[in-house]
Specification:
The complex is a heterodimer of chains A (523) and B (228).
Chain A lengths: L1 H12 L2 H38 L2 E4 L5 E2 L1 H10 L3 E15 L5 E9 L1 H7 L2 H4 L25 H13 L1 E3 L6 E7 L8 E2 L5 E2 L24 E5 L12 E7 L8 H6 E5 H7 L5 E5 L25 E6 L2 E2 L1 E6 L5 H18 L6 H6 L3 E3 H4 L1 H39 L1 H9 L4 H32 L1 H12 L6 H4 L10 H27 L3 H6 L2
Parallel strand pairs in A: 4-11, 6-10
Antiparallel strand pairs in A: 1-15, 1-16, 2-14, 3-4, 3-9, 3-15, 5-6, 6-11, 7-8, 9-10, 12-13
Chain B lengths: L3 E12 L2 E13 L4 E6 L5 H8 L11 E4 L2 E2 L5 H10 L1 E4 L11 H17 L2 H14 L15 H13 L5 E5 L7 H18 L2 E6 L2 H5 L3 E6 L2 E2 L1
Classes of the chains: A alpha+beta (523), B alpha/beta (228).
Chain lengths: 523, 228
């Protein structure tokens, strides 16, 4: 009872305990901020998998596997699977409008089904907006401008279909959607918006032909090296593409080095489209193979006889889980489905081969090495910061030690009034806990303020001090993770409390064991 | 039966490598309601005897015994002595020893908080008694003040109210007027006399002032740790 009264009085009438609470606050805020940013980076990395490649991928790189439509049908019949989509995932070169040639990751996708597995529609950047983005306080984003609504709607649709009407004929043609950092034409500002150099070319009827200037009417050229089914390289294939739109995932490396093209275009370039083998239906001009100059017996041109079909192939099937199904559960399901599929088709890689090469995997497994490195780094940093934070314990210990020296006579008085040793110890422990509670809560609030506003703070540091701590080229994401997980907050706040308690224990024992007579005579 | 009975109490303090005997076989008896003055010069062992009577200190091992109401203090454990001090004894010190962060009211009620504990604390009852005690000492207008805002006499009256809040059987006062002028000291003693009579409170008062000692029912003289 008296402990509560004295704790309250000591807390509100002394400057030293407030200094101790400030120390706890700073340590708590420091650890929670760092853990939130680093842990948030890891969480965002893992979560980004769903927006990039779905929950699970089934791969056979470079040469690809056939009958993927059937595999997708089988997968979508499984109760754990929400949707699946084919993709060609390969590397290549892109010649850009400013004559740069960049090595990029080329993804041939079927936009309709791809959007069911990953957040493709969300990722498309150029589309009309109704309200400003989070950091666009002045509403400067060109996508908000009602004059360009129609234009951006058209561009958005082109992005969704990966096609663009030819400016002369109006016939839809294959188009590409590169990551927003690839072309180097859209400049990102601190407010998070991108500014275009201009907004396309005005047409005589008042419309605008294309938003992608100066890429307008310019094309980018995509080059790939295809392989045949046996993995032998064929020859370099290049093809020009119009730019339909740009996408932004927020993962800098993806936005810098990934380009989407239509699946059919990718299959064509990679020689993975359906192919037919034929023999001559007439008198062969040379050998048994079909020759367009072959003639029938009556001298008419021979019609080739189709002897076999080499089915279209893809390198990857992306799978999305139904709600409530974990990526690992989905991977098990995909493994089972693929086994059934592979048993039926001898011309696809065996299930065992995929399993042994770890080619049916979750996003986390794809990034295992990187994720493990980030986890270790986070643990190490937390350990070091935790160690640094232990100094708060020593600070409290020193402050309490000094306070007990100052309060020695009061302790003697309390003992003369009948206070027990345990009661005196509890007074100081409770006092330490009170400092811990105040410091931890204040630290939690400070961390919340810092983490919530870490991107504006970072932008401010960049503009005023010229300091760029979070370089997207180094840190993967273009913005700093700014979410505090409640579980982490609770752990850090309790740790702050425990450190305060540890700092108070030794002085509390000292206070409890003071000889009351000596304490009363203490000068 | 005597309320408080100290028999052949010895107490030696060790200062560095030197043993300094402070009490050398002191025996004192205090009857219920009796006012005993312990008179002696500085360093004669008066305060040490008071601390031993109040259970704050113990006699040298095997050398003396203090019995309160038939129960030897040596038989009480740490918890027993804590209870003895909070329930049966009230201490008043020469330099008041009020807690500076607390108000006058809180300084008085804190003793009741210690005695009753959190679960048994009767706030309304304690507050009422503290208020009555403080008013009886003329401090009704000072309840919310802190010790630093009080005069010496007011501080000592607050300390006496604190000592009386738990209705002790014996009040142990260590030169309660030693730091006050004669008039103020007289007022304090008058107030104590009033409460002693109304609550049948035994009082052991250490003093070196003959006039103060003259008010006591009985005077015990202490010279160099022995009864004179």
């Amino acid at each position: 009872m008296y402990q509560a009264l004295l704790t309250r009085k000591y807390l509100t009438s002394k400057i030293m305990p407030l200094l101790a609470a400030v120390a706890v606050m700073l340590c708590t805020a420091m650890v929670l901020t760092v853990w939130s940013v680093m842990g948030g980076f890891l969480s965002r990395l893992l979560e980004s998998g769903r927006s990039l490649v779905g929950d699970v991928t089934i791969e056979w790189p470079n040469t690809g596997f056939a009958h993927y439509d059937e595999l997708i049908d089988l997968l979508e019949e499984h109760p754990r699977v929400k949707a699946a989509t084919p993709m060609i995932d390969t590397f290549g070169l892109v010649s850009l409008p400013d004559n740069r040639v960049e090595g990029v990751n080329i993804r041939g996708i079927d936009p309709k089904t791809y959007g069911e597995v990953v957040d493709y529609t969300q990722a498309l950047w150029w589309k009309p907006l109704d309200k400003p983005a989070e950091k666009d306080h002045k509403g400067e984003d060109v996508r908000l401008d009602p004059r360009y609504k129609e234009l951006f709607e058209a561009v958005y649709q082109e992005g969704l279909s990966l096609s663009e009407p030819d400016s002369k004929t109006g016939v839809p043609q294959w188009a590409a959607v590169p990551g927003i950092e690839m072309l180097g034409l859209s400049k990102r500002e601190a407010s998070g918006i991108y500014r275009l150099g201009s907004l396309g070319k005005a047409l005589p009827d008042g419309g605008v032909a294309n938003v992608m200037t100066p890429a307008f009417q310019q094309r980018i050229t995509v080059r790939v090296v295809p392989f045949d089914r046996e993995g032998r390289d064929v020859r370099l294939v290049s093809r020009p593409f119009a730019v339909a739109n740009e996408f932004r995932t927020g993962v800098f490396e993806i936005d810098r080095r990934t380009i989407y093209i239509p699946l059919a275009a990718a299959q064509s370039m990679m020689k993975m489209e359906e192919a037919k083998s034929a023999v001559s239906g007439g008198t062969p001009a040379a050998g048994g193979a079909f020759n367009p100059y072959d003639l029938n017996a009556d001298g008419t041109p021979a019609v080739p006889v189709i002897t076999g079909i080499d089915p279209a192939r893809v390198t990857t099937v992306l799978v999305r889980a139904k709600d409530g199904v974990s990526p690992d559960e989905l991977r098990e399901a995909c493994d089972q489905v693929y086994e059934t599929f592979a048993e039926k088709h001898r011309d696809v890689p065996a299930a065992r081969t995929l399993r042994e090469n770890n080619l049916i995997r979750t996003w986390e497994m794809r990034q295992a090495q990187f994720v493990a490195a980030v986890r270790k780094e986070t643990s190490l940093v937390l350990f070091i910061l935790g160690f640094v934070s232990a100094t708060a314990s020593f600070l409290i210990l020193a402050i309490f030690w000094a306070m007990i020296s100052e309060k020695t006579k009061d302790i003697g008085v309390l003992r003369s009034l009948g206070a027990s040793r345990a009661g005196i110890a509890w007074l100081w422990i409770r006092y330490g806990l009170a400092i811990g509670v105040v410091g931890s809560l204040a630290g939690g609030a400070l961390a919340w303020l810092v983490v919530s506003n870490i991107n504006p703070i970072h932008d401010w540091m960049g503009s005023v001090l010229g300091v760029t701590v979070w370089d997207p080229r180094v840190y993967y994401f273009t913005t700093i993770p700014n979410t505090i997980e409640p579980v982490r907050a609770v752990i850090v706040l309790i740790s702050g409390l425990v450190f305060s308690l540890l700092g108070a224990i030794i002085p509390a024992i000292r206070a409890a064991t003071l000889d009351p007579v000596r304490a009363l005579r203490f000068e | 039966m005597a309320l408080l009975n100290a028999t052949n109490v010895h107490k030696t303090y060790r200062l560095g490598k030197v043993d300094v005997p402070v009490l050398r076989g002191v025996s004192v008896t205090v009857e219920p309601g009796e006012f005993v003055a312990i008179l002696g010069s500085s360093g004669s062992g008066k305060s040490t005897l008071l601390h031993i009577l109040g259970g704050l200190d113990r006699p040298d091992a095997g050398k003396g015994e203090v019995v309160f109401d038939g129960t030897p203090l040596s038989a009480m454990g740490m918890g027993g002595l804590d209870r003895y001090r909070s329930e049966r004894v009230g201490f008043v010190f020469q330099f008041y020893h009020l807690l500076p962060e607390l108000t006058v009211m809180e300084n008085v009620t804190v003793a009741a908080m210690i005695r009753q504990g959190r679960l048994r604390y009767k706030a309304a009852e304690v507050t009422e008694r503290a208020k009555a005690l403080l008013e009886s000492f003329g401090l009704g207008h000072r309840l919310g003040h802190r010790p630093a805002e009080l005069s010496g006499g007011e501080r000592q009256r607050t300390a006496i109210a604190r000592a009386l809040i738990n209705r002790p059987a014996v009040l142990l006062a260590d030169e309660p007027t030693g730091n006050l002028d004669r008039v103020t000291g007289g007022t304090i003693l008058d107030a104590l006399a009033g409460h002693r009579a109304s609550e049948k409170l035994a009082t052991v008062m250490v003093t070196h002032d003959q006039e103060v000692a003259a008010r006591a029912d009985r005077v015990v003289r202490l010279v160099d740790g022995r009864l004179a």
